[in-house]
Amino acid sequence: MVQAYILIQTEVGKASAVAETISSITGVLTAEDVTGPYDVIVRAQAESVDELGRIVVAKVQQVEGITRTLTCPVVHI
Q1: Residue 60: partners with Cβ closer than 8 Å, 6 or more residues away
Q2: Residue 7 is part of which domain span?
Q3: CATH code at position 42
Q4: Residue 15: CA atoms inside 13 Å, Cβ hemisphere, count?
Q5: Where residue 19 falls among pLDDT bands split at 50, 70, 90?
Q6: How many helices (H) and strands (E) does the chain have?
Q7: With CB atoms 3.0 to 4.6 Å apart as the test, which of 22, 52, 59, 72 could cross-link to 31 if both were Cys?
Q8: Are 20 and 6 in contact (CB under 8 A)?
Q9: Calpha distance 18→65 (Å, rounded)
Q10: Whole-angstrom Cα distance, residue 37 to residue 19?
Q11: Longest distance between any two alpha carbons in the chain, whole Å
Q12: pTM, two decimal places
């Protein structure tokens, strides 16, 4: 199982709607509004890195109101 944090910047005033929409995507564990340089932080998991990439590109990035994403895979060192 691969997990990652997805840091999201949104259009002004869209963070809550983006977080709510993303929270219903299969593979998303949490989606929360935050303050700071990013507006929403998502924790997601998938069976493989390729599947995680498909979740981000085909589903998360298609949500209306998102301007930029940064995916940070969790590593165990």
Answers
A1: 6, 8, 22, 25, 28, 42, 44, 66, 69
A2: 2-73
A3: 3.30.70.920
A4: 16
A5: very high
A6: 2, 4
A7: 22
A8: no
A9: 7
A10: 16
A11: 38
A12: 0.93
Angstrom distance (rounded) from CA 69 to CA 63 = 11
Which has the closest alpha carbon to 46: 6, 8, 3?
3
Whole-angstrom Cα distance, residue 45 to residue 56?
Answer: 11
Write the pLDDT tens digit of every residue in 42-61. Answer: 999 999 999 999 999 999 99
Question: Which residue, chain included where needed, has tokens 């929270």?
Answer: 23
Contacts of 50 (CB under 8 A, 6+ apart): none
Domain count of the fold of the chain: 1
- Structure tokens of 68? 């930029």
E-only strand ranges, the chain: 2-10, 28-33, 40-46, 66-73
